[in-house]
Amino acid sequence: RSIFTVFMLWRNNRARLIIIKGINMNIIKLALILLLLIGFDVNAQSKLTKIEIDPMQLPTSKKSLSDLIMSIEYTPLQTKNDCLIGKVDLFDISKEYILVYCSKSVSVYLFRRDGRFITKIGRQGEGKGEYLQYCINGVFISEDQKQILIKTDYPNRILFYDPSGKFIKSQETKDLGGILRLYHNKYLFTYPNSKGEKPYTYEIRNRELKLLAQHIKTKPYKIKGAPNSSGMTWLPPACCYLYNNQLHVKEISLNDTVYRITDDNLFIPQYLISSGKYDITLEFRSDFKSFIDRMPEFVRLETVFETTSNLLLSYEYNKKRRYAFYDKQKCILQYFKSDIGIPNDYDGGIDFWPQKQINKEWVSFYDASVFEESIANPQKLISKAPKEMINKVKKMIRGLTSDDNPVMIVVKLK
Asked: What is the bridge-based pairing of β-strands 407-413 and 69-76?
């Protein structure tokens, strides 16, 4: 018989009402079944996985680097008088280039992917194409446009250069936050929730800085007991990783949720990471003196990365960094046996922890002195890589001194 029927259809997790007139009852029943199936599929895609951290319970696992990776690539950055790097503070990589920023020398350097030095990008100063000390908060490679980008926060702008180091232009960003990632020709801006003064934690903008989306409302709170008006309580900075060609970010207002950013700029919660009574609440952050005195007593989530089977995370508790992984199939949290990352049973090199994830690659920079120390304290694990690869790593390590530039390590995941 003919009736008015209302259906709710889901697309990209947004409900739409459709009113249909004059439908046969059998068709309606079939449509309702399909509707339920669609609803269950959406819920499956956006299912929020809850992960509990108890810093007093640390079940260890035998999982090591060989369980996670296919290969390791070591690239020592060329050491020359005009590119001496104490520590890599910020970096970006592409198929052709390696871009690093060293705050100690207040310099941005461009290398070829094989580690050969190309040129210094810009210089310290207040003139055209120059930047001030401690004001750089992002360096990026736009390989498709053959550009190098440096984001500064005083003045607030983006500086553009070509790969030869020639200055191209300056783009004013005014009161915009820091750029967390340049991806798919878009910027992800982030605003630290120091006092909840910003309405949203994240903004997505195009290359002309036009606002495309705002997400994750901040949680406002007032600070008492701060020595001055600029006093604030802080958490670790936002971290993000590219996985399955989609960006994932950690919410920094409460420091507990990992979101997946869809192609149409929606934020879908994927993981809720809680530590119960060890969580840093807004109430706790509001009391400045108590926060400073008791901060080591609480869990501070630092970095998050992902593989097909695991979610890797590091956090700080009681002034010590801990490295763990959540097994997606077994739904349990376990810890690596190493105190500095994932135990390296692959090629006899150092234990490893990523700083950046680009889909199936993990990237980190290590000071040359770390490799020198590994000679004095050799690995006890049996290496599983081919013998020629193990010998190659040993030769590289023996050729390094503590005065050399850092080494880039790129790990390819299974």
From this structure: antiparallel
pLDDT tens digits, residue range 215-270? 998 887 788 876 654 556 667 778 899 999 999 999 877 778 999 999 999 999 99
For residue 199, give Cα distances in angstroms to 96, 215, 253. 39, 9, 11
Whole-angstrom distance, CA of residue 184 vs CA of residue 188: 10
Q: Which amino acid is at 225?
A: G
Burial of 137 (C-beta count, 10 Å sphere; 0-12/13-18/19+): buried
Residue 262's H or E segment, with its range, is: none
Specify which residues 107 forms β-bridges with: 102
SS3 85: coil
How far apart CA 51 and CA 298 sit, in angstroms, is 16
| Strands 90-93 and 300-306, bridge-based pairing | unpaired
Of 101, 165, 153, 91, nearest to 129 by C-alpha is: 165
Kindly report, residue by residue over 306-322, the tens digit of the pLDDT.
999 999 999 999 999 99
pTM of the model: 0.86
The length of the chain, given as a count of residues: 414
Q: How far is CA 379 from the centre of its chain?
A: 29
Rounded Cα distance, 178 and 137, in Å: 7
| CB atoms near residue 299 (< 10 Å) | 23
pLDDT in tens, 70-114: 999 999 999 999 999 989 999 999 999 999 999 999 999 999 999
How many angstroms separate the CA atoms of 214 and 202, rounded? 6
Contact call for residues 53 and 299 (beta carbons, < 8 A):
yes
Amino acid at 212: L
The tokens describing 372, both together, are 């020198």
Closest-CA residue to 327 (of 344, 354, 306): 306
